[in-house]
Amino acid sequence: MAITTAQSPFRTDPLTGLRIDLTAQTLVKTNAVLAVVFLLVGGIAGLLVALTRWPAVHLLPADLFYIALTVHGIVALMVWIIFFEIAVLYFVGSTILSCRLAAPKMAWTQVVLMVVGAATTFVAILQGNSSVMMTSYVPMNAAPHFYLGLILFAVGALIGCGVFWGTLVIAKEEKTYEGSLPLTVYGCMIATVIAVFTIASGAIILIPTFLWSLGLIKSVDPMMYRVIWWAFGHSSQQINVTAHITIWYTVAGLAVGAKPMSEKVSRTAFLLYILFLQLGSVHHLLSDPGLSSAWKIFNTSYMMYLAVLASLIHGLTVPGSIEVAQRRNGLNNGLFEWLRKCPWGNPVFSSTILSIIIFGFIGGITGVVMSVEQVNMIVHNTIYVPGHFHGTVAGGTTLAFMGLTYYLIPVLFQRQLIAKPVAALTPWLFGIGISIFAVAMMGAGTLGVPRRHWDITFAGQALGFEFPGMAQMMMAVGEIGGVMAVLGGGLFCLIVVGSILIGEPVPANAKNIVAPAADAGGHKEIGMGGFEAPGTFVLAMVLFVTLVLYYFVNFKYLATLWTLA
Amino acid sequence: MGYSFTAPAKNWATEPIERTEILWITIAGSWCLFMFGWMIAWHWIGNQNMANEAYRTTPEVYAKKVEDFTAKYTVRQDKSDPSLPVVAPPPGSDVYLAASRWQWRPVVEFQKGKTYRVHISSLDWDHGFSLQPENINFQAYPGYEQVVTMTPNKSGQFSIVCNEYCGIGHHTMLGRIYVKE
C-alpha cells in the first residue's frame, strides 16, 4: 500500500528535538486539557466526599453524598484518566515515532464521543436518580442515559486505540523508525491491547443493562453482571498501570538520561501483563457465591502471580535504570549518592519517583495481600479497598500523569510553567496527602469501617453498632490527608491552566531539556560487588521484606477469627 | 546510546541481563510461587476458608425459607428493637439470613463453639454481609444463596453491617447476631 507524503506539516520542537505533527499536537492538547478539566471536577467531588466522611465535618446530606461519590468514582477513575491516556497514545504514537497521526477525523470523533458520553452520564448522576456508584450493580437501576453515556465514552476510547494502531501501521510503512518499537511505544501498545479487552467487556455488560433500563430486556443476572462488569472495571485499572509504568520508563530517560537496564526483561514483563493481568478482575468476586475456590485461586493469583512478578520487575528496573544512569554520570559513591543527587526539585521527576514509591509500597503490597482468597474475607467492601486503590490509581497513575503533564506543557503548548516553586511542591502535597489518606483508610478498614457509607455512627438505629474510637480517628486523619491531596491536585490544575493561558512563550532558540543519554560517554565501571544498581536492590529488598511481613501479619489476624468453611 | 523512547539496540533480545535484575527476579519469582502454594495450602492448614457452597434461588423462595426458619426457632423479641424476633437455631442446623432494603433479618442467637450452616442471600438488590467487630465480609445478591459454615470462637453481641451500597438507606442497614457462652 503506497502512502504518499504526509499531508500535515510538522515542526521540530527545540526543547526535545522531537518532530511533532501539528494535527497530532492539537489533538493531544485537546485531550490533555479535557483530562485536566475532568480531574478538577473529580477532585471537587472527592473533596465533598472527604468532607462528609470526616466524622467531625460530615458536610453533605446522604442523597448529595451518594451523588458526589458516584461522580467522584466515574470522573476521577475513568474520565480524567482515559482522556489523559488518549493524549499519551496520540503523543507517543506520532511524536516518538516521528510520524503523522492516522485518521485525524476519527480522532476528532473520539473527542466528541468521549465528551458527549461523559457529559451525558454526568448529567444523569446530577439529576439524582442515578446514584448507583461507579459499579452500578444490577438490579439497582440508573436512568438509561447513565449507561448510554458510559457506552458512548467507551466507544470513543476504542476509536482512540484504533487511531494509535493506525499510526503504528503508518510509521512502519513509511519507515519513520528502524528496528523494534521503542519501549515507550511498546508499553503503550500493550496498554491498548488491554484497553480493547476492557472496552469489549464493558460493552458486553453495559449494552444489555442499558436495554434493561429501557425495559427492552426483562432482567440482567446480578452475578453475570458482576463477573463481566469487573472484567471492565478492574481491567481499566490495568490499562492505567501499564500506561503509568510506561511513563516511569520515559521520564527516567527524560530527567536523568536513563535507558532501560534490559530491554528483554522489561518487554517480557509487559508481555506478562497482556497474558495475566486481566485475571485480577476476580479480586472483586472473591466473597461472591457460586464461584469455585479453584477458579478464584487461579484468577486472583494472576496464574501463579505472574503479573505481580511483572510489576515487581518494573519496580526494580525503573529506579535501577535511574541509578545506573546517575552512576554513569559520576555519582558512583556508596549505596545512595545517586539517589540523594536526583533532581528532586523538578516536579516531573519527583512525581514519577513518588508514583513509584506509593504504587509499590502502598498500592502494590496491599493489593497483593488483600487479593489472597482468604484474606479478602477481612477486607471485602471495607474502606480498606478505597485505601488500596487510592494508592494505585491516585498515588500511582494520577501522580505519574501529573508529572508528565508538567513536562509536556512547554513542549506542546510552547509555554513555560508559571509558579515553578509551587509546581515543585504539588507532587509532594498530592503524594503525601494521598499516602496519609490511603494508609488511614486501610487502618479504618481493618477495623471494619464500610466503604460507600454515609453514617458509620448509625445514629438513631435500634440495632446500632459503634466502631472503635480508633476507627473514627483514622477516618478523620485519612480525610485530612484527602483534603491535602485535593489541595495539591487543585494547585496542579491551576498551574496547568494558568501556564497554558498566561505562561511565557518558550523561545525558538531554547536549549534542549532532554537529559543527555548516560550510556553515551559515561563511566563504564559502576556499582558495587558486581551489581550495577546495588542501592535499588537494597530498596527493593526493603519492599520485599515489608510485603512478606505484611502478608503473614494478615494471616495471623485471619487465624483469630471465627472458624469459616 | 539509548533511552526507553528511542529504538533499542539491534541485539536487544540477546543482550545479557545484569546481575541485579537476575537476583531480584529469582527472589521475587520464588515468593510468587510460595504465595500461590500458601493460598492453596490454607484450605487444609487454615480454619478460615470460603465455602464454595451456593445455590440458585429466587427472592420469593428464599423469603419463604427465612420465614419458616424464623417461625420455627424464635425464642424471644429483641431487646433493642422489640419488633424483631430473635431466632435461636440448634447447633448444626441451617440458618437463613435475608438482606433487603434496609435490614438484615432475622436476629439470630448462636452458641459459642457450635457450628451453623449460615445461608446468605438478598431479596432485592446487592447487599453486604459484614460481621462486626469480627470483620468477616461476604457479598449477597438476589437469586443466589451462599452457605458459609460458621463456628463462633467468641461470645457477645455482633452486628451485621451492610457494606455494599444499596440505595439511600444503605447506612441504616444493620442486623445482629448474639453468641452465648
Number of strands of chain A: 3
Major sheet of chain A: size, sense and barrel closure?
2 strands, antiparallel
Gyration radius of chain B, rounded: 24 Å
N to C succession of SSEs of chain A: EEHHHHHHHHHHHHHHHHE
CATH superfamily of the largest domain in chain B: Cupredoxins -  blue copper proteins
**Class computed from helices, strands and strand pairing of chain B:** alpha+beta
CATH classification class of the largest domain in chain B: Mainly Beta
Spell out the helices and strands of chain B N to C. HEHEEEEEEEEEEE
| Rg of chain A (C-alpha, Å) | 23 Å
Low-confidence regions of chain A? none
Oligomer: heterodimer
CATH architecture of the largest domain in chain B: Sandwich
Summarize the main sheet of chain B: 7 strands, mixed
User: What structural class is derived from the secondary structure elements of chain A?
Assistant: mainly alpha
| Largest interface, Cβ cutoff 8 Å | A-B, 117 and 93 residues
Briefly summarize what is shown.
With 565 residues, chain A is mainly α.
Tags for this model:
heterodimer, A: 565 residues, two-stranded antiparallel sheet, 16 helices, B: Immunoglobulin-like, 2 domains, seven-stranded mixed beta sheet, five-stranded mixed beta sheet, elongated
What does this structure look like?
The complex is a heterodimer of chains A (about 575) and B (about 180). Chain A has about 575 residues and is mainly alpha-helical. Chain A has helices at about 20-55, 60-95, 105-125, 145-175, 185-215, 220-255, 265-275, 295-300, 300-330, 335-340, 345-370, 385-415, 420-445, 470-500, 520, 535-560; strands spanning about 10, 20, 565. Chain A has a domain at about 345-455 and about 465-505. In chain A, helix 12 (about 385-415) runs antiparallel to helix 13 (about 420-445). Chain B is of the alpha+beta class. Chain B folds into 2 domains: about 15-50; about 55-180, Immunoglobulin-like. Helices cover about 25% and strands about 35% of the residues of chain B. Chain B is built from 2 helices and 12 strands. In chain B, strands 2-3-6-12-11-8-9 form a 7-stranded mixed sheet. In chain B, strand 2 and strand 3 (about 85) form a beta hairpin. Chain B is elongated, with a radius of gyration of 24 Å. The N and C termini of chain B lie far apart (about 75 Å). Classes of the chains: A mainly alpha (about 575), B alpha+beta (about 180). At the A-B interface, helix 2, helix 5, helix 6, helix 7 and helix 8 of A face helix 1, strand 8, strand 9, strand 10 and strand 12 of B.
